[in-house]
């Protein structure tokens, strides 16, 4: 495995700036996720790292070796595409062995490597099947084996789970993460799925408009977002715009005054109040300063989601589903409820960084 360095990487398509001076270092054996909405530049970045797309400027380095001008087939990267890109007329084993064949690996050695790769992804018993005879999860494993069999310096994943159903996606991302850690694969993952990024990555790179908004561990970005965009994209968040009144109060645009503990590193120019839904407690009745009518209740199995209007603002609250005999279990829309939170739970952030 190799380390990856991206040095001031920029890509323009005519007048459009897709990636704007991106800098990133990925350590050997680390899994880093590029996370952001469609059109933010994450897939363009991945394609430049893979060698499929030339940058307008900047450099890509593997283990401090400049590979910017190397064609894709000479970069020793293994890539899993969103569509899997399996050859429909080839069996699983033939698909896995194709890259080795193109590299001139002999028959006996190629067969041994293919068998090892299929065993690694638990598909040895399906080696002779065509892609159309495999489930979506099995096709995804074939694509993983094909990328791994060439012993890549860098493992690249381009939204590899987006074609799977929710249950299978949750299972496979755990398998990929375990495989990546067991083999020590240096990995760059592109995704727009925040849950996928949070559960799989050592570090997240949140992108928007071709630029990096914040880099950090999943916990750092979830607990300490630098701006409202990151807070909202990394996880669900109540974001209320307004202004900081003093050291302990924030006034929303709707006139609601919220008491908070201001962290030392929070900007004095912060104009957004950010609070995770699971960090708000809710109880029946109109108590304290923060109360109002319940607008909606959504049962999510182990959790229940509540929408509560307080003044001109609406708060989303997520709590463990109450038992049938608990007071909260009987609340209905338009009932009065009260909200509380630890004063250290909210963060005050700028709307943009």
Give a written overview of the molecule.
The chain has 353 residues and is α+β, with helices and mostly antiparallel strands. The protein folds into 2 domains: 4-223, P-loop containing nucleotide triphosphate hydrolases (Rossmann fold), CATH 3.40.50.300; 236-349, OB fold (Dihydrolipoamide Acetyltransferase, E2P). Helix content is 24%, strand content 33%. It contains 8 helices and 20 strands. It has helices at residues 42-50, 92-102, 107-120, 136-148, 166-183, 194-200, 218-223, 228-234, and strands at 4-13, 16-26, 31-35, 57-62, 65-66, 77-80, 154-158, 187-191, 203-208, 211-216, 238-244, 249-252, 257-259, 272-275, 281-284, 291-299, 303-310, 313-320, 336-340, 347-349. The protein has a 6-stranded mixed sheet with strand order 6-7-8-3-9-10, sandwiched between helices. A 5-stranded antiparallel sheet has the order 13-12-11-14-20, with helices on one face. Strands 15-19-16-17-18 form a 5-stranded antiparallel sheet, with no helix packed on it. α2 crosses α3 (107-120). 37% of the residues are buried. The mean pLDDT is 92.
- Report the total helices: 8
Spatial shape? globular
Q: Please state the average pLDDT score.
A: 92
Distance between the termini: 34 Å
The Cα radius of gyration reads: 24 Å
Report the strand count: 20
Largest sheet: 6 strands, mixed
Q: Report the CATH C-level class of the largest domain.
A: Alpha Beta
Strand order of the largest sheet: 6-7-8-3-9-10
CATH topology of the largest domain: Rossmann fold
CATH superfamily of the largest domain: P-loop containing nucleotide triphosphate hydrolases
Which percent range fits the helix content?
10-25%
How much of the sequence lies in strands comes to 25-35%
Give me the secondary-structure category.
alpha+beta
> What's the CATH architecture name of the largest domain?
3-Layer(aba) Sandwich
Order of helices and strands: EEEHEEEHHHEHEHEEHHEEEEEEEEEE
Poorly predicted sequence stretches spanning 5 or more consecutive residues:
none
Indicate how many domains the architecture comprises.
2
């Amino acid at each position: 495995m190799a380390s990856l360095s991206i040095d001031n990487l920029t890509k323009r398509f005519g007048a459009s700036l897709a990636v704007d001076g991106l800098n990133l270092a990925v350590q050997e054996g680390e899994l880093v996720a590029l996370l952001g909405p469609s059109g933010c530049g994450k897939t363009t970045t991945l394609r430049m790292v893979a060698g499929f797309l030339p940058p307008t400027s900047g450099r890509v380095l593997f283990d401090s070796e400049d590979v910017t001008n190397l064609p894709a087939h000479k970069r020793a990267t293994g890539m899993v595409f969103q569509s899997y890109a399996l050859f429909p007329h080839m069996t699983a084993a033939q698909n896995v062995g194709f890259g080795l064949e193109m590299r001139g690996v002999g028959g006996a050695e190629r067969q041994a490597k293919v068998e090892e790769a299929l065993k690694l992804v638990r598909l040895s018993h399906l080696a002779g099947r065509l892609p159309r005879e495999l489930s979506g999860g099995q096709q995804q494993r074939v694509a993983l084996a094909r990328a791994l069999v060439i012993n890549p310096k860098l493992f690249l994943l381009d939204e590899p789970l987006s074609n799977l159903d929710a249950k299978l996606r949750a299972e496979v991302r755990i398998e990929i993460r375990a495989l990546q850690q067991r083999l020590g694969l240096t990995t760059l993952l592109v995704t727009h799925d925040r849950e996928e990024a949070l559960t799989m990555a050592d570090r997240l790179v949140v992108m928007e408009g071709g630029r990096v908004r914040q880099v950090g561990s999943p916990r750092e970005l979830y607990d300490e977002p630098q701006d409202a965009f990151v807070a909202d994209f990394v996880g669900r968040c109540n974001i209320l715009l307004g202004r900081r009144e003093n050291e302990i109060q924030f006034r929303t645009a709707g006139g609601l005054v919220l008491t908070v503990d201001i962290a030392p590193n929070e900007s004095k120019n912060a104009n957004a109040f950010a609070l995770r839904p699971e960090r708000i407690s809710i109880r029946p009745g109109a108590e304290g300063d923060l109360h109002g009518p319940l607008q909606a209740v959504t049962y999510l199995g182990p959790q229940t989601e509540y929408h509560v209007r307080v003044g001109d603002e609406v708060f989303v609250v997520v709590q463990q589903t109450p038992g049938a005999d608990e007071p909260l279990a009987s609340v209905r829309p338009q009932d009065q409820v009260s909200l509380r939170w630890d004063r250290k739970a909210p963060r005050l952030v700028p709307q943009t960084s």
